[in-house]
Amino acid sequence: MTPSDAPAPQRGRPTVLDPPAIAAATFRLWSERGYAAVGWKDIAEATGVSVRTLVRHFARKSDIAWVGVPTATRRLREALEQTPGDVPVDDAVRRAIVASMSDDPMSPAGPDWIRLVCTEPELAGTAPTAYRPWIEELAEFIAGRTPGMPRAAAMALASGYQAATVAALVAWSESDTDERAATAAEQALAWISIASA
């Protein structure tokens, strides 16, 4: 191999990043100091990851709040795919939403996370974009299991389920209970029913 045939050297080291660990450390900082008071330098110091690397992986500071949503979306999809066809659609949806949740207190559905994303305007403002894949996954299932339902109606129902889940989690995070977040969400979602055509 001649020098001209050799592959160009890579600049820098490959990045190995643990997004859940970054999120957990960042959530702690936000809880202690407030969202606005925490900058990239603070996050870098808390995580041991350079500011440059953080900014390369998270376009905005608010993106860190949503690192758990793709995993929750994957768990939702898997639960929906494993649902037998004879399970009523509203039961299937409720079970899948509960299966998509995590018990980690610093992850989506944890009390600290809920308080942060619901009280910080920038985080609340990015929620619709962050949750869009989760909602679309749920809407696809609802439309597939409810013949004749227009896509817009399925999206509206899926969005309603997401809003109801967040409302249940907010109430749960504000209560003094040992109940699991998933249990609180399941109890609230039991009140929602999808009428079949």
TrEMBL record:
Q: Does the keyword Glycoprotein apply?
A: no
Which Pfam families does the record associate with it? TetR_C_14, TetR_N
DNA-binding interval(s): 39-58
Record's keyword terms, sorted:
DNA-binding, Transcription, Transcription regulation
Q: Name one GO molecular function term.
A: DNA-binding transcription factor activity
Which positions fall inside the HTH tetR-type domain? 16-76
Q: Residue span of the signal peptide, if any? A: none
List where this protein forms a coiled coil.
none
Provide the protein name: Transcriptional regulator, TetR family
Q: Give the organism, scientific name.
A: Saccharopolyspora flava
